[in-house]
Design a protein that fits this description.
Number of strands of chain A: 7
CATH topology of chain A: Thiol Ester Dehydrase, Chain A
Helix content of chain A: 25-40%
Radius of gyration of chain A: 16 Å
Largest sheet of chain A: 5 strands, antiparallel
Shape of chain A: globular
CATH superfamily of chain A: Hotdog Thioesterase
Distance between the termini of chain A: 20 Å
Oligomer: homotetramer
Mean pLDDT of chain A: 96
Number of helices of chain A: 3
Strand content of chain A: 25-35%
Chain lengths: 144, 144, 144, 144
């Protein structure tokens, strides 16, 4: 079992920064999604490709909030921590916190996603085994 | 003078969509920023390159909120409308609404940005002429 | 009928430029693909979504060559012209030339793509009606 | 000293794939650039930010060639190996080979970059210490 909370580490890329020399704001959302995707794969054991392909479901975003706390620049390390805020019947709220290599809190991203059947896009309950793992993770992180 | 409110039109790209066949969520934030950038250039007459290069300032994002109201897919037209919600002394709040070609409301993005001096990154008041144009635009849109 | 050769016009985005102040090189490839995608939609009348979804085919890239002739910077206009170099039985070669607003030649991209059946990924001949339109376009451009 | 040849490992992201379910072609160029950037930082000890910021130089791309040998899909591991093909006076040719987790050769990218002074963009010789490290790396890889 991997450590709790789960973190994803990466380096800020040159191409993710803009002519002002700092990260282009939308890339922060990309980094948070990248951490969430890794969490699905490594913690829930449900790669998005399987969720969409084999399980005939999807989990589109409903809402996202991004707080830009400290600017990131190229070559900085970013450690993104994934937490589960709330697990509903057919939706879930994640919180992704990004810190740089010196431990400065750089961003906080809150994402609300729902679950749907495909191809109807009708709302669907979170599959029981996925829901269980989400709650277990939440508990392991002391968030419940 | 261009029409009020200002809109930016584009088409959803194939490469902006994911294996689920709809737009990858962070790209919505990219589309909103693209509209905001065009608004700076065309309405305020202050391309970001000039703000950063010639004026020695910057306007980093402080917070962003994205509501995903209807999924977008490749080849759909997106019309993004830029509105100014609030003009402060050293910060401003924008609202970008995206509609598809059939007029469906697809996303609403709220962005709070501050103004800074470069390279100190110290908070700075919005330059008077830029602030005036922001308020004039807000008035022309009936938002004040 | 749209003009020949077909062109796609866009503006270089702030977020496509890097801390050196010019376009991040891979974005040039993105611009060329964007023009090619628009050409499929507007000239061939085959949006990629239809090619992949309804027709059960695909046209993955086999090889790409990019010549960076003049650097592009934010706010510059880019006019990308699509030409067809060679239409084979199951593959096609495109050439996309990008010029800025002053007519400077900024990039030349050559792309070789093949046609495949999905989901087998087996090589497939270009559908006859698509092939005809490709050749007609090539002729209309004086490239044959 | 890190191993020779230098490799950069990553996972193909969901957001880098398109509705056909495989990597969107321009993202392969992004992956190659990411590996090259890491090689500059870790092997040459010259992060691009220092090259551009402190040293007042730049190394824009002149030409790139990408061979797409096998399609990559989300969740696959990609190991990108950086090799130096040719070190000239003011230009250098890199070769980046990407293999998936099963060792399949997925892409080969050749990049020619030149060196310039900033802000004049005039051609400049590769700084002696950087050139030495490039040649030493080339030798260590058995490419010379």
């Amino acid at each position: 079992m991997t450590d709790r909370p789960f973190t994803e580490t990466r380096v800020v890329r040159w191409g993710d920064c803009d002519p002002a020399g700092i990260i282009y704001a939308p890339r922060v959302f990309d980094y948070a999604m990248e951490a969430l995707e890794a969490w699905y794969r490594d913690v829930l054991d449900v790669p998005w490709m399987r969720l969409v392909g084999d399980m005939g479901m999807g989990s589109p975003m409903v809402r996202a909030e991004v707080d830009f706390l400290n600017a990131l620049a190229a070559d900085q390390q970013v450690v993104s921590e994934v937490r589960v805020d709330r697990v509903g019947r057919a939706s879930v709220t994640y919180r992704i916190n990004g810190h740089d290599g010196d431990g400065r809190h750089c961003f906080r991203v809150t994402i609300v996603a729902c679950f749907i059947d495909r191809p109807t896009f009708a709302s669907a309950p979170i599959p029981a085994d996925i829901r269980e793992r989400m709650v277990a993770y939440q508990t392991a992180c002391g968030d419940q």
